[in-house]
Amino acid sequence: MSKSIYAFILLASRNMKWMLTIALILSSVTYYPTKVIGQTKQLATTKQPVQPSKGRTLPQQPTSRPVFILPKAPASLSPISGRRAGMGSRDNCPAVPTPLTALVPFQEEQKVGEQENKSIVGIVEGLTTSERPTFWFYIPYTKNLSNSSAEFSLQDSAENDVYRNAIALPSKPSVIGISLSNTAASLQVDKTYRWYLKVHCNKEAASIPVYVEGNIKRVNLDSRVIQQIEAANEPRQKIIIYAEKGIWFDALNMLTQIRISNYRDASVEEDWQSLLQSINLGNIATMPLVKLPTR
Predict the structure, then answer these.
(1) Which of 34, 88, 122, 186 has the fewest CB atoms nearer than 10 Å to its CB?
(2) Where are the domains of the chain?
(3) 83, 71 in Cβ contact below 8 A?
């Protein structure tokens, strides 16, 4: 082999080694970023929140508060006017920021009078399943008034007295409960009764008392509602059902019993405010609550 050919082969061999070295370096540089990027994507993926499976139970939402829903009146019943709030300038009664008020649902009919503390006339009525329900009123007048008196009465559709009794005024403005005594005749199913609460701030004066009036009707529950109530685990769940089904007096009476015994419970107070606000009596929700003894 000539010297020129041998030199050429030696040069070519050296160039080939350099080319292979350069190729290996380039391939390692290209592969490393790709591997790093792949690992980064994998780590990022593992940090994503795990989606719940279809069978997984999500955390329960907070339970609802009792909200009264006005039931549809039967076609056979005609609207009867009542008075949920009493006029505040009668019978020499002192001026009060909140008038005598019945804790009953109200549908406004018309406004009477031009004075600041107006008496609103409309449909004042509620349903119950109880034979002898308790009626609740906010009374702003107190027993400190001399010569004062109050009376609650209940009449049937023929205006016969079912119950009549004198009521002692509270020691301070309060929401009071008036229960029918065990000697009073029980309310009959599907019968409508008329109730009255009259307050004389001066019983010696021959004047019209401050009063409120409205209707109450006893009904039987639908079988589906009975099942819902029986399935309820807590009293407040029963209250919510009664309120949603339009059974006002049952919802109110159950809640007042709980509130009297748990008056420091914030959740009970929120339920109380929710129920009264649903019939636009939020201004009564902060008033003291007292149940008068049955006579």
Answers:
(1) 34
(2) 81-291
(3) no
